[in-house]
Design goal:
Layout lengths: L5 E10 L12 E12 L2 E7 H5 L6 E12 L1 E7 L13 H14 L4 H17 L2 E7 L4 H13 L5 E3 L1 E2 L12 H15 L6 E6 L7 H13 L4 E6 L3 H10 L6 H7 L7 E5 L5 H10 L2 E4 L1 H6 L7 H6 L5 E2 L11 H13 L7 H16 L16 E4 L5 H7 L5 H11 L5 E6 L2 E2 L5
Parallel strand pairs: 1-4, 5-6, 6-7, 7-9, 8-9, 9-10, 10-11, 11-12, 12-13
Antiparallel strand pairs: 1-2, 2-3, 4-14, 14-15, 15-16
Helix pairs in contact: 3-4, 4-5, 5-6, 12-15, 13-15, 14-15
Bound molecules: guanine and zinc ion.
Length: 434
């Protein structure tokens, strides 16, 4: 058989809207004996096995029963040069940056180190079922080169950018307003829109950028409106106070990014925890995307993200790991901690909404729902295969699970990389291959 078609058989779950509650069955498609037909990196069809198989396309059948197939997970905020920072003890944000993170990121000036770590970083994403991420690279152009080179080698839909940081950081970890602009420009022309790569203009946060640099970042945003912009916002009280001292004229933290023209629907604002009423209104008007980073917010003691409050303003929140402030690459573990942060505020994260969030929801936040986040025909074949009984403890609990929602909740609370049975990127199996 010369066909390059694959027919993946198993239980199939795909969302077409955000579930409003447990009874909202119109928001998703779930098929017990389902299939996904894949060719040339894209999904040709998905649905009932009999229906998809009856299309008569010659295909190699891969039987994943009894596992559950869904769109690959999307991580909307992660730091590539922090693979060896994760699990660094005892500090909150600013001390954590100065003590652990900045010294580590210096090592990415070396192209060899960046290349080796990029390979390991992408291995971790795949192991945890993440097929798309928006990542911060280090200040060095080499780190972004390594990142995009490795993403292209794997044909992954990845967003990334070199961080812009020209002050309040050690020598060797600072660019200048001009060099940051020039390097970003060069990276955009080399990588943005090449294959599946997308560039994010990445001022790290207001503390490490001079006004001149933020102005340059605003120029980049204006010159490249189809690029994303990613930064950090209102994560920690000491950070907010220091930021206010550095930008005394700004009405508030978000007002700085607003003043320099950084806000748009493509702006990703990591953390967005401690916000005032004016900032909420600016978020609403700009349609910028707050990014919830649960494991990081707990690990660094940063605070509790007000998901319901932001959603109540009509905002679209994304969710992410924030490794290495975050403590797991797993979007399942991210949902686990997210559930608990919302519990502390009397808010709920139902498993149907949770799994929508890490797939189609994050795709919507990134403006990429035409390519990722669902199993719709025509989208990229980025697929995760989940084993809900991956550990003894999960198998034991699953003996008493009767509904899809119960099964999803077991994955949401107990799942991690062990629950990822297989991952397809652009139609190619990644786990069995390695
Ligand atoms: N704020 C500025 N840089 C960082 C970072 O690397 N991690 C986190 N969590 N917050 C930041
Ligand atoms: Zn971050």
């Amino acid at each position: 058989m010369t066909s390059n078609h694959l027919l993946l058989r198993g239980r199939v779950l795909s969302f077409n809207a955000e579930p409003e509650g447990p009874e909202d069955t119109a928001a998703y498609t779930y098929v017990e004996d389902g299939a996904i037909l894949v060719a040339d990196g894209r999904i040709l069809a998905s649905g009932a096995f009999d229906t998809v198989a009856a299309q008569g396309v010659a295909a190699e059948v891969i039987d994943h029963r009894p596992h559950l197939m869904m769109a690959g997970f999307i991580d909307t905020h992660i730091h590539f040069p922090q693979v060896q920072v994760i699990a660094s003890w005892g500090a909150q944000l600013l001390d954590w940056l100065n003590t652990y993170t900045f010294p580590e990121e210096m090592r990415y000036a070396d192209a060899g180190h960046s290349g080796r770590m990029a390979e390991r970083f992408f291995d971790q994403l795949i192991a945890h079922g993440t097929t798309t991420a928006a990542a911060y690279c280090s200040v060095h152009k080499t780190s972004a080169e390594a990142y995009f080179t490795e993403a292209a080698r794997r044909d992954m839909r990845m967003i990334g950018g070199k961080v812009l940081m020209d002050r309040n950081a050690p020598e060797g970890l600072r660019d200048t307003a001009k060099s940051g602009y020039d390097d970003s420009k060069a990276l955009i022309s080399e990588w943005h829109g090449k294959g599946r790569a997308l560039y994010a203009i990445t001022p790290r946060f207001a503390i490490t950028s001079s006004p001149e640099q933020l102005e340059m970042a605003g120029t980049l945003v204006a010159e490249h409106p189809d690029c994303h912009m990613q930064t950090h916002l209102s994560e920690n009280h000491d950070e907010i106070a220091y930021t206010a001292a550095l930008y005394p004229e700004a009405p508030d933290y978000l007002g700085i990014y607003e003043q320099y023209g950084l806000l748009s629907p493509r702006a990703l604002l990591g953390h967005s925890i401690h916000l005032g009423a004016r900032e909420l209104e600016v978020l609403r008007q700009s349609d910028a995307k707050p990014v919830f980073c649960p494991t990081s917010n707990l690990f660094l003691g940063s605070g509790l993200f007000d998901d319901a409050g932001l959603r109540g303003q009509g905002l679209t929140n994304a969710i992410a790991t924030d490794v290495g402030g975050g403590t797991s690459y797993s979007m399942l573990q991210t949902l686990n901690e997210g559930y608990k942060i919302l519990q502390l505020q009397g808010q709920k994260l139902h498993p149907l909404r949770a799994f929508h969030w890490i797939t189609r929801g994050n795709a919507l936040a990134l403006g990429l729902e035409h390519d990722i986040g669902t199993l719709e025909a025509g989208t990229g074949a980025d697929i995760v295969v989940l084993n809900s009984a991956a550990t003894d403890a999960m198998a034991l609990r699953m003996e008493r699970a009767e509904t899809l929602s119960e099964e999803l909740f077991v994955l949401q609370i107990m799942g991690d990389d062990r629950a990822i049975a297989e991952v397809y990127v652009a139609g190619r199996a990644q786990k069995s291959r390695s």
